Amino acid sequence: IQELVLTFYFSLIGDMSSPAIIHLNQSGPTEFVFRVFTSSPKIQVLLFCFFLFLYVMILCGNAAIIWAVYTNISLQTPMYFFLSSLSFLEICYTTTLVPLMLSNIMGERKPISLTACATQMFFFATLGSTDCFLLAVMAYDRYVAICHPLQYTLIMTPQLCIQMVTGPLGLAFFLSLPLTSLVFTLPFCGRFLEINHFFCDIPPVLQLACADTRVPQAVLYVISILVLTTPFLLICISYVFITIAILHIPSAEGRQRAFSTCSSHLTVVLLQYGCCSLVYFRPPSSTPADEDRYLALVYTFVTPLLNPVIYTLRNKDVKNALKKAMSKKAAFENL
């Protein structure tokens, strides 16, 4: 499957008559295993239950937002369209990582093949990059809504909203695929190699390659700048204009409501970009052995969980929509 995907990609960017095919370069049937969090059976059970609970909460919370938006006409606006898109992305993103992580917490460690590891890395990089781009899109939406309220419906048309969601996904795809293929053209020497992580992230996998990794490391830095730094700068610029516009609102209640909406978005932004920057911008030699794993738990569990918590508990429109939907369902079941 991976070879077919790589063939398709390089046929798009290269000669269509003779597409380049990249084969996984390996010394024998190499497989990876993930480092365990703990060897204590009791703590393993506790970690499994804890992470499973968080995963179920992420699925239920984000699914509730999608359900509320698409069953309530009053929420079918650009802001909630982007919010529901983010919720759907969070579901896919965590599902790419968490089930495999849970299966490796208890019992014997289960090996993962090169192809499976490459597939997980590709989907993680694509969905994670799209997540970062989408946060910048949501900041632009808030900028237009607060700074140009009279032109909001004219600017944020349904066609533009769809393009602002599919565009980041396409960009993330074409950034993640060559990076993943570049990592897995490196040779990996040995039968079983231990990844110091709970999923196939790029930095710990690069550390296991028995070849010069300076080129893929440089490519990773460049793509990290495009995915993390550029959207973050755009978000900061948007919020500078948003803050100036909010300060000109005459009523204190209006200023408080605007700041409340923006602070929710900024909370997710700072956690997402802050933790990712610590992982991908530091030199590999300066990274402590287990620190990246703990930072990854933040953007694997915390930020996907904050999304539904912030936008439901602090948003009256979403809470009212969920209450109406639940009351309608209860009334239908009583008939």
From TrEMBL:
Which molecular function term from Gene Ontology is one that the record holds? olfactory receptor activity
Task: State any GO CC term.
Answer: plasma membrane
Segments crossing the lipid bilayer? 45-68, 80-102, 114-137, 169-188, 218-247, 259-281, 293-313
Which compartment or compartments is the protein found in?
A: Cell membrane
Which keywords belong to this entry?
Cell membrane, G-protein coupled receptor, Membrane, Olfaction, Receptor, Sensory transduction, Transducer, Transmembrane, Transmembrane helix
The way it spans or sits in the membrane comes to: Multi-pass membrane protein
Could you name the domain of life of the organism this protein comes from? Eukaryota
Q: Is Cell division tagged as a keyword? A: no
The G-protein coupled receptors family 1 profile domain covers 61-311
Instruction: Write down the InterPro entries for this protein, in alphabetical order.
Output: GPCR_Rhodpsn, GPCR_Rhodpsn_7TM, Olfact_rcpt
Can you tell me which family this protein belongs to? Answer: Belongs to the G-protein coupled receptor 1 family.
Q: What is this protein called?
A: Olfactory receptor
Source species of the chain: Sarcophilus harrisii
Give the organism's phylogenetic lineage: Eukaryota, Metazoa, Chordata, Craniata, Vertebrata
